[in-house]
């Protein structure tokens, strides 16, 4: 065993080698070739005494020389005293070191952080499969010296300033401490005006409290509290560093750092007279709020470069040391760790002559359940059982299998803190107390006497036949200070086999870990833990998953459109699982685009007067999303814009003499911008300059003409990198008659650049390479794919040791995490590849990669229900659109109700084109509505709402005096009339006798094929007609009121004369949508509208189940009238158009005569035109289609 000095140390010396000692009692066999324990030895470790505390930076191991004995993995423990040990863990919390694979090779490990210790213990975990444990070790490091002070809980060090008070803008406090108490003040200082700084150990955590403000003038405005660390009362050294510069504070505990800023107005810390370390000498001092002084040791205590302990040791006058000693006293508290929740136990004997029983111990655990103690009493089947149940203590006295009584005390005892438990049994009572609180007592019917032994933890297997079984699980945690009948239990005797019996225990160490530090729960998820793992409560965070990593919200309004949502307010999470939270936006989902609208605090017109550059008018805009969220939203959008309405009267935007800006706006980065319109950032120009129509050709803005009349410089800002507008400044309204009116609109963005970002792979050897993924703790990956290949690798991420691969295997996606090997490449399409909230730009990378092309066609064939209600899916280069021409519905997915409110006398009539034989075998290309034959087949669907009876809902008549009608009878029942043979009585069907004129929305669906008619009105009914004749050459279809018509039965005529009052919605007749066509084809001579018809959303409002979101569209709409236009109106329109064109031409010519800026404007116009050119449909490369017959049938899947 060797120790090499000055290895990787910051000090300079000659690097000597020292021989260290190993305790012979802890080494069963120590031959010349190395260390190996006896096979019967239960204490299998190698302990090294370095004689004094040193700084250890590395270790190395070999196997036993000339033998098959070596250690393949081990744990490294360290201790100052050789009794209380702590396990060394690397930065990634790995607690074991890989060892040797043979007896001669050397395996060297540089520690991720040095440790200052005297004792090291090498604890073998696994060893040579063909031999035994064998070790030779080397320890590397350097000497370590420190100034130490011991505080007994009533002592402190006072550092007095040279003046009455000191004011600092920069402070640095560093120290190391160790303690066995969970509470105590380490540093405290305060001033008369209310400044203070306090470092406190509270429940094993460090709390830093700082206030820089005057407490009287600004109470609590400058106060900040920071909490860091956990389980710091473990009798081991912990380092602390506090750095403050003005309001910025860096607080570090054991390599974990928090960065915070104080509030308030002041930057300096004013402390009066002194700074105390180890406690507050005057507990009643004003402003103090802490409770206990520190009990433990400190070393290397520095305040702003001053060695406080060194001054105290040299008895300098500026230091007062009260009851402080300069050697660290080591308490003899020794812990044991119960490792297993199923088989750990400690069985201890009891004195048979003892008539009473008292047990005291301290425990520390995260588990809410566990059996702490079981004691058999002398009477048969009688025992005491102490359980930890839901974080409470429950002591149960079992008199028999059916008789028991218990005591329940305590709350939240599984909090990782040390808790003291006392049990006392004597005579007719048993008492239980926890943490020095008053005991709870249970009265017994008979005198209870202890048996021969008691068990701490679970039940030993030898006692299971005696009825000892774990009611829950065995205790798993730490325990110390076990005292039975006033006799402390010596754990050293227990581990040597001289006292009691045990299983799955580790002595001289408390193996508890805070698995919530660092907190792996993301997005403010609440962390809780057990002994072995941690849990994240994601309630109210907007995220889900094991670590609250995955957002529950869609990333964009475009994604909401794909789910079938209509316009409304939605929560979106633009960066997915990234650090930004979700925000609420308005999604305006139209037929051609999906707009994302983000509002701010001032969208009304603002009038400005009396402002100048010296005293300008300033308006700051606070948006409903943070600037970071807006930056992400804008970058993901295809295009964004923001309208700035600006009206002026004798108010200039620029100084007409030297061009100095008199008004400007700030972009999202806070940079000043002086252009007022356009999609490219310009210099001092307005929209009229881009459009070449400014009122004065000598200026770039209308307002710069400085006229007394109202002028307009409204423009649309559309350069994404500058949006949104965060502030506007108006500076030229202080002259007589000068004023301005402005309004900055909401931010509008459309498109999702990454949702349809795709790449097509048509060679197995092709791949896209991206930078290494940083996913040490958590990772989420999502993508859409489609393929005809049965297998292939989607993505693979290789690290130095580990890797992740996602591949398709036998038509299922699997996540592989094993040895990396060459796999078959992926053939097909991948889009929207998202990793940890960041979407990879597949299209851009594909442009420079052979075997891969940008885009992924075939969206319409990849899923079954992109467009609903007879809507037709149409491919686009980036995604798809739904053609709802032949659907009774509208909206982006043909799911939006198209409704009209009918008033008295209102009707819509469709007159089909001239009759022709529908049996001819040819097609007629026409965009108009043409006469048709039903071929003995009709499909009719609509919704209605009314309170009127009788009522005409729909009627169809032909050129051959046939008709069919759907009416409401006098009693409100639905009736369907068919007269297919004018010589016979009509077929009349009443599917339901209920009154449907009840003010509720009803859906009617009718389908006829020949004689069979199927009706679905809240039920499925089938009827048979008297004939299978067809409706031959339909003349017209009418909704609402019908005037006199020959050949129609009296009851139908009566319903037709009454018409319909109410709401008709989503009317479909075969492939036609008559109600929708009435709205869209207002100028057609084939559509005749009578009376008042109001486009409405009455159907959607009535059907609450279809209401998906808040909408800004109300029930009011556009009035529909007969759209026939007179010849005079047409002639007038033509004359107006000619005059307008002539005036525009004259304006352009004048522009060219007076100004010579046309070359620059033409260049900008060409750029604009190029930017707005429609993108051609992406061609699917021939090489990709390895299975051409199957391409269109491929379905898209989401992982």
UniProtKB/TrEMBL annotation:
Organism superkingdom: Eukaryota
Protein name (Swiss-Prot/TrEMBL): Contactin associated protein-like 5b
Record key words, sorted: Disulfide bond, EGF-like domain, Membrane, Repeat, Signal, Transmembrane, Transmembrane helix
Q: Which residues form the Fibrinogen C-terminal domain?
A: 548-600
* Task of the protein: May play a role in the correct development and proper functioning of the peripheral and central nervous system and be involved in cell adhesion and intercellular communication.
Gene Ontology CC: membrane
Which SMART domains does this UniProt record tie to the protein? EGF, FA58C, LamG
InterPro entries, per this entry?
ConA-like_dom_sf, EGF, FA58C, Fibrinogen-like_C, Fibrinogen_a/b/g_C_dom, Galactose-bd-like_sf, Laminin_G, Neurexin-related_CASP
| Membrane topology type | Single-pass type I membrane protein
Q: Does the keyword Kinase apply?
A: no
* Residue ranges, annotated region (Disordered): 15-35
Family membership: Belongs to the neurexin family.
């Amino acid at each position: 065993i060797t120790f090499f000095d000055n290895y990787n140390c910051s000090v300079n010396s000659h690097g000597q080698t020292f021989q260290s000692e190993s305790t012979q009692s802890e080494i069963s066999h120590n031959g010349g070739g190395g260390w190996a324990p006896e096979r019967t030895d239960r204490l299998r470790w190698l302990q090294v005494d370095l004689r004094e505390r040193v700084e250890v930076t590395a270790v190395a191991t070999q196997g036993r020389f000339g033998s098959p004995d070596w250690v393949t993995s081990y744990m490294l423990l360290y201790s100052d005293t050789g009794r209380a040990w702590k396990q060394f863990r690397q930065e990634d919390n790995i607690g074991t070191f890989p060892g040797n694979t043979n007896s001669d090779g050397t395996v060297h490990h540089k520690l991720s952080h040095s440790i200052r210790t005297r004792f090291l213990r090498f604890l073998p975990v696994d060893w040579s499969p063909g031999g035994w444990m064998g070790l030779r070790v080397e320890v590397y490091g350097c000497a370590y010296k420190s100034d130490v002070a011991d505080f007994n809980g009533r002592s402190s060090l006072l550092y007095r300033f040279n003046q009455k008070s000191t004011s600092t803008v920069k402070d640095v406090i560093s120290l190391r401490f160790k303690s066995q108490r969970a509470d105590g003040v380490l540093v405290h200082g305060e001033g008369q005006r209310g400044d203070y700084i306090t470092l406190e150990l509270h429940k094993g955590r460090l709390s830093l409290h700082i206030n820089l403000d005057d407490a009287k003038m600004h109470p609590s405005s400058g106060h900040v509290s920071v909490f860091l660390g956990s389980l710091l009362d473990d009798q081991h050294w912990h380092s602390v560093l506090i750095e403050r510069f003005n309001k910025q504070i860096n607080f570090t505990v054991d390599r974990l750092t928090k960065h915070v800023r104080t509030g308030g107005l002041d930057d300096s810390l004013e402390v009066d007279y002194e700074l105390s370390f180890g406690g507050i000498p005057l507990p009643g001092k004003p402003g103090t709020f802490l409770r206990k002084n520190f009990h433990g040791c400190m070393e290397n205590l520095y305040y702003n470069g001053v060695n406080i302990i060194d001054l105290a040791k040299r008895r300098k006058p500026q230091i007062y040391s009260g009851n402080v000693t300069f050697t660290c006293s080591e308490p003899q508290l020794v812990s044991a760790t119960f490792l297993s929740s199923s088989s750990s136990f400690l069985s201890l004997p009891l004195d048979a002559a003892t008539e009473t029983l008292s047990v005291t111990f301290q425990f520390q655990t995260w588990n809410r359940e566990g059996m702490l103690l079981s004691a058999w009493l002398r009477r048969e089947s009688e025992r005491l059982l102490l359980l930890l149940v839901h974080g409470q203590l429950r002591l149960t006295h079992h008199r028999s299998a059916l008789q028991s009584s218990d005591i329940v005390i305590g709350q939240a005892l599984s909090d990782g803190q040390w808790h003291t438990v006392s049990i006392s049994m004597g005579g007719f009572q048993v008492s239980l107390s926890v943490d020095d609180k008053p005991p709870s007592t249970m009265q017994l019917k008979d005198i209870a006497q202890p048996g021969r032994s008691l068990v701490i933890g679970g039940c030993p297997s030898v006692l299971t036949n005696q009825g000892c079984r774990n009611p829950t699980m065995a205790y798993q945690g730490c325990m110390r200070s076990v005292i039975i009948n006033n006799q402390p239990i010596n754990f050293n005797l227990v581990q040597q086999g001289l006292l009691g019996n045990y299983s799955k225990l580790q002595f001289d160490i408390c193996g508890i870990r805070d698995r919530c530090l660092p907190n792996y729960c993301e997005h403010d998820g609440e962390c809780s833990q057990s002994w072995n793992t941690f849990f994240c409560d994601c309630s109210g965070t907007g995220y889900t998953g094991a670590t609250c990593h995955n957002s529950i919200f869609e990333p964009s309004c475009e994604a909401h459109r794909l789910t079938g949502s209509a316009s409304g307010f939605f929560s979106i999470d633009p960066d997915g699982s990234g650090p930004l939270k979700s925000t609420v936006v308005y999604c305006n989902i139209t037929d051609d685009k999906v707009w994302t609208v983000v509002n701010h605090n001032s969208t009304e017109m603002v009038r400005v007067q009396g402002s100048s550059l010296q005293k300008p008018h300033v308006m700051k805009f606070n948006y409903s999303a943070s600037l970071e969220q807006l930056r992400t939203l804008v970058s993901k959008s295809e295009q964004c814009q923001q309208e700035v309405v600006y009206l002026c009267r004798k108010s200039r935007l620029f100084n007409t003499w030297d061009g100095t800006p008199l008004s400007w706006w700030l972009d999202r980065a806070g940079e000043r911008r002086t252009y007022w319109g356009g999609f490219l950032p310009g210099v001092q120009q307005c929209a009229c300059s881009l459009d070449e129509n400014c009122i004065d050709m000598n200026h770039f803005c209308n307002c710069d003409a400085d006229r007394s009349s109202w002028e307009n410089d409204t423009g649309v800002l559309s350069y994404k990198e500058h949006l949104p507008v965060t502030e506007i400044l108006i500076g030229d309204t202080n002259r007589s008659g000068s004023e301005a009116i402005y309004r900055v609109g909401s931010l509008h963005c459309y498109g999702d650049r990454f949702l349809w970002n795709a790449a097509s792979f048509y060679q197995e050897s092709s791949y896209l390479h991206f930078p290494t993924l940083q996913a040490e703790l958590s990772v989420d990956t999502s993508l859409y794919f489609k393929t005809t290949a049965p297998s292939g690798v989607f993505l693979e991420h290789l690290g130095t040791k580990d890797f992740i691969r996602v591949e398709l295997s036998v038509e299922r996606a699997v996540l592989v995490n094993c040895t990396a090997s060459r796999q078959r490449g992926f053939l097909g399409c991948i889009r929207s590849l998202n990793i940890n909230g960041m979407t990879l730009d597949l299209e851009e990378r594909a442009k420079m990669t052979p075997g891969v092309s940008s885009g992924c066609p075939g969206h319409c064939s990849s899923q079954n229900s992109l467009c609903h209600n007879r809507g037709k899916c149409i491919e686009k280069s980036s995604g798809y659109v739904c053609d709802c021409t032949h659907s009774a519905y509208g909206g982006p997915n043909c799911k939006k109700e198209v409704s009209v409110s009918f008033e008295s006398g209102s009707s819509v009539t469709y007159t089909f084109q001239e009759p022709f034989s529908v049996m001819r075998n040819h097609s007629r290309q026409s965009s108009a509505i043409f006469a048709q034959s039903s071929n003995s087949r009709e499909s009719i669907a609509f919704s209605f709402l009314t309170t009127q009876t009788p009522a005409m809902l729909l009627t169809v008549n032909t050129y051959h005096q046939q008709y069919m009608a759907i009416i409401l009878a006098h009693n409100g029942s639905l009736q369907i009339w068919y007269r297919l043979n004018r010589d016979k009585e009509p077929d009349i069907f009443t599917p339901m006798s209920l009154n449907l004129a009840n003010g509720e929305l009803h859906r009617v669906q009718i389908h006829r094929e020949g004689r069979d008619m199927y009706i679905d009105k809240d039920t499925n009914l089938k009827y048979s007609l008297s004939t299978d004749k067809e409706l031959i050459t339909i003349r017209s279809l009418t909704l609402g009121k019908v005037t006199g018509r020959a050949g129609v039965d009296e009851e139908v005529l009566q319903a037709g004369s009454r018409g319909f009052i109410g709401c008709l919605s989503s009317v479909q007749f075969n492939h036609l949508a008559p109600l929708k066509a009435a709205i869209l084809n207002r100028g057609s001579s084939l559509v005749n509208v009578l009376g008042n018809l109001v486009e409405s959303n009455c159907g959607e409002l009535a059907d609450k189940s279809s209401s998906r979101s808040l909408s800004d569209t109300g029930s009011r709409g556009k009035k529909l009238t007969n759209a026939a236009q007179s010849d005079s109106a047409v002639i007038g329109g033509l004359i107006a158009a000619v005059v307008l064109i002539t005036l525009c031409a004259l304006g352009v010519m004048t522009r060219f005569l007076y100004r010579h800026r046309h070359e620059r404007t033409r260049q900008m116009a060409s750029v604009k035109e190029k930017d707005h050119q429609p993108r051609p449909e992406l061609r699917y490369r021939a090489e990709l289609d390895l299975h051409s017959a199957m391409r269109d049938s491929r379905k898209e899947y989401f992982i």
